[in-house]
């Protein structure tokens, strides 16, 4: 693992070097700043360099025309031509020829070098011979002195000046006349067929032949536009042609063309070749930059993966001493190392760079070194923090975490009211300080700096108020979330949970406690449901197991009775056996039915039932039975039919259980009241009686299983009748309620009225 990381670091350094090479090649390219479109869409002839070179050469052409008139006679250099006129005294002048100026220059040691520049020193401007006023210069006929002293020059200065202009003439003549080049030109001023002036290095060619060379420019004295395919046409062409016109007419033209196939190795050829090289270098730089960036990204990704990974046969991540420091101290140390490296670079390394680079690229070399230092220290710091993060100690060991935990000690264990008082006090103090500072600045200073400072104070004040509003809003939102959670839990949604990640401080503790309550309630509810299910299964299984031997007992008792035994004592025993076995059978059936009713495991056949008619039938069924205990059935029933939606079989069982309950527990020689009333959209059936035994029990307890009003259990009954009646009523969509007032027992069954 360690070797893989070292290889990744080495590869990252190599790719970083490739990035530096690519950026350096592109940055130092002459086309830097033009984007990349010029690579595919631009040729040398479209570049500003070509336009600048052509403009310079056109200026030289005009200078050549001027020098040709100054230095030549009949197309040849004439050393005897008058060139300078100076004032020799009051009213007297002296003329100097070209030959005299050249010989004087030679006497002073001046000469033309291979580049046709004047060498041999410069004339002395402090000599005593500055007493000639220059009246006329053939090469500058329109010269006007800006100051009176500018008209006076020595012969040395004049000879140096003449030699300089002669060097310009020779340089152009050498480049474009004597030696063939890619630039072709022709200027012609014509007065008559025989009276004209022609200046050219491409004689006898037509305009179309000039245009066929490549880039061209054609100007006539009669046209108002310049015929050219150049991207940029020099603006001084027409003015210079008009200025140099010796005939004062419009019969002149100028043709300039550059042979873009570049058959001659002149300045254009070299510039075009350099352009192609720059294009190639730029493409190579782009490729290096792209490969370097991709390689740096890939190797950096590998370094991130390998940083903090455990070594072979190691169980904990690598943790160097630097990585064990708190994150803030590590960052400070890396910043200090970066600062020291930059200082050393400025004091030593920059000077070493200056030894190897030209002055023009000193800034770039220094910039590259600074970026490399920042990049290396930055990557090292990030990898160190990443190692701490993977080790799980980045936040744990940080000074910020320790400071926050220390600060929370002053707030976390205080009550809500105390925290609000402390927070509001701090907020109030800050507001008072800000208002005082703002008022002091407002009434004390009126300058611009003070106004800016007041604006900063006001902005800080507003930001703090907005932050306090945000905190208040967040606390209110947290309170709403807690209230919503309590409302859901109180409505029976015990699975509701609060997302505590959005809470802080005491509110988070409260939200977590509510979640614990919800979890506890849900667990208890699930346990209760599971317990009820187990109880129902137990009752069903036990009842089923009892039913088989019980059926055998009942059958054998019946068989014995058929033997017609005459012994009255045995007959009494058989009667007891039959009664108890039948009671046990009824109890078993009630248990199964109670279990099914409470669990809802019953199939209902809901139909429309006339509740009034059903009560009449039930009264008829139990009237004779009630007479056995001298109970008088008093009914108050409406004459009209009242329809409800219910299962007739199970509704009859509800009524049967209620009537049987009255038969068993009502006081003898009393009345049992039965009535049906209509309340809004409901039908209420009520049965009331006076209990024979004291009802020292709550009404809700009577609806539980195996609970009887006869606590002494002197009467027959299983304690399941009321529970079954309640479960069956609710299963059919009705409501079942009991009321106990002293010895008065009252049961109410309500169903929605079917319209």
From TrEMBL:
Residues 570-597 form a coiled coil. It catalyses: ATP + protein L-histidine = ADP + protein N-phospho-L-histidine. Residues 541-755 form the Histidine kinase domain. GO terms for molecular function: ATP binding; phosphorelay sensor kinase activity. It is found in: Cell membrane. It is an enzyme of class 2 (transferase). This is histidine kinase. It is a multi-pass membrane protein.
């Amino acid at each position: 693992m360690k070797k893989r990381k070292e290889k990744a670091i080495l590869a990252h350094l190599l790719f970083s070097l490739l990035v530096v090479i690519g950026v350096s090649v592109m940055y130092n390219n002459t086309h830097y700043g033009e984007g990349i479109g010029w690579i595919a869409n631009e040729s040398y002839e479209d570049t500003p360099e070509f336009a600048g070179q052509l403009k310079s050469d056109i200026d030289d052409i005009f200078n050549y025309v001027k020098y040709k008139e100054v230095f030549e006679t009949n197309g040849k250099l004439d050393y005897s031509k008058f060139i300078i006129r100076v004032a020799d005294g009051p009213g007297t002048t002296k003329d100097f020829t070209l030959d005299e100026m050249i010989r004087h220059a030679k006497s002073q040691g001046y000469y033309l070098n291979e580049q046709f520049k004047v060498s041999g020193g410069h004339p002395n401007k402090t000599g005593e011979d500055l007493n000639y006023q220059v009246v006329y210069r053939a090469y500058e006929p329109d010269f006007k002195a800006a100051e009176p002293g500018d008209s006076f020059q020595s012969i040395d200065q004049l000879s140096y000046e003449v030699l300089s202009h002669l060097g310009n003439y020779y340089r152009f003549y050498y480049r474009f006349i004597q030696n063939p080049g890619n630039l072709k030109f022709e200027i012609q001023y014509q007065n008559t067929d025989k009276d004209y002036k022609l200046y050219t290095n491409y004689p006898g060619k037509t305009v179309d032949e000039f245009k066929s060379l490549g880039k061209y420019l054609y100007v006539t004295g009669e046209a108002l536009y310049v015929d050219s395919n150049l991207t940029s046409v020099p603006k001084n062409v027409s003015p210079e042609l008009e200025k140099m016109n010796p005939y004062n007419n419009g019969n002149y033209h100028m043709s300039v063309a550059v042979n873009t196939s570049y058959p001659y190795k002149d300045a254009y050829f070299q510039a075009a070749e350099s352009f192609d090289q720059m294009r190639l270098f730029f493409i190579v730089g782009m490729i290096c930059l792209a490969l370097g960036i991709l390689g740096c990204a890939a190797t950096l990704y590998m370094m991130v993966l390998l940083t903090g990974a455990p070594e072979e046969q190691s169980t904990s991540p690598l943790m160097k001493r630097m990585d064990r420091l708190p994150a803030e101290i590590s960052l400070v140390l890396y910043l200090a190392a970066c600062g020291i490296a930059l200082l050393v670079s400025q004091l030593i390394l920059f000077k070493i760079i200056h030894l190897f680079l030209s002055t023009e690229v000193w800034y770039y070399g220094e910039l590259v070194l600074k970026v490399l230092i920042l990049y290396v220290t930055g990557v090292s710091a990030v990898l160190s923090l990443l190692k701490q993060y993977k080790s799980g100690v980045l936040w744990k060991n940080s000074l910020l975490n320790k400071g926050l935990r220390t600060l929370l000690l002053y707030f976390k264990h205080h009550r809500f009211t105390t925290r609000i008082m402390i927070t509001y006090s701090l907020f109030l103090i800050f507001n008072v300080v800000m208002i005082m500072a703002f008022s002091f600045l407002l009434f004390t200073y009126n300058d611009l700096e003070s106004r800016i400072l007041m604006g900063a104070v006001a902005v800080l004040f507003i930001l703090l108020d907005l932050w306090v509003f945000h905190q208040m809003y967040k606390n209110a939102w947290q309170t709403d979330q807690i209230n919503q959670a309590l409302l859901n839990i109180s409505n029976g949604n015990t699975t509701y949970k609060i997302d505590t990640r959005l809470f802080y401080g005491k509110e988070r503790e409260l939200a977590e406690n509510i979640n614990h309550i919800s979890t506890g309630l849900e667990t208890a509810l699930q346990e209760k449901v599971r317990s009820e299910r187990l109880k129902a299964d137990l009752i069903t299984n036990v009842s089923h197991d009892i039913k088989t031997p019980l059926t055998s007992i009942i059958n054998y008792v019946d068989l014995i009775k058929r033997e017609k035994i005459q012994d009255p004592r045995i007959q009494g025993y058989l009667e007891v056996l039959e009664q108890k076995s039948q009671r046990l059978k009824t109890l078993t059936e009630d248990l199964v039915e109670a279990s099914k009713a409470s669990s809802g495991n019953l199939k209902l056949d809901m139909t429309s039932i006339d509740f009034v008619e059903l009560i009449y039938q039930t009264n008829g069924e139990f009237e004779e039975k009630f007479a056995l205990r001298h109970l008088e059935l008093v009914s108050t029933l409406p004459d009209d039919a009242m329809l409800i939606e219910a299962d007739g079989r199970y509704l009859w069982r509800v009524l049967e259980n209620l009537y049987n309950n009255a038969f068993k527990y009502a006081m003898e020689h009393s009345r049992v009241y039965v009535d049906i009333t209509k309340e809004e959209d409901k039908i209420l059936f009520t049965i009331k009686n006076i209990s024979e035994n004291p009802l020292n029990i709550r009404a809700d307890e009577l609806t539980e299983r195996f609970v009887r009003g006869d606590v002494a259990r002197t009467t027959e009954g299983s304690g399941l009748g009321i529970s079954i009646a309640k479960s069956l009523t609710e299963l059919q969509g009705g409501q079942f309620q009991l009321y106990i007032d002293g010895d008065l027992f009252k049961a109410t069954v309500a169903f929605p009225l079917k319209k």
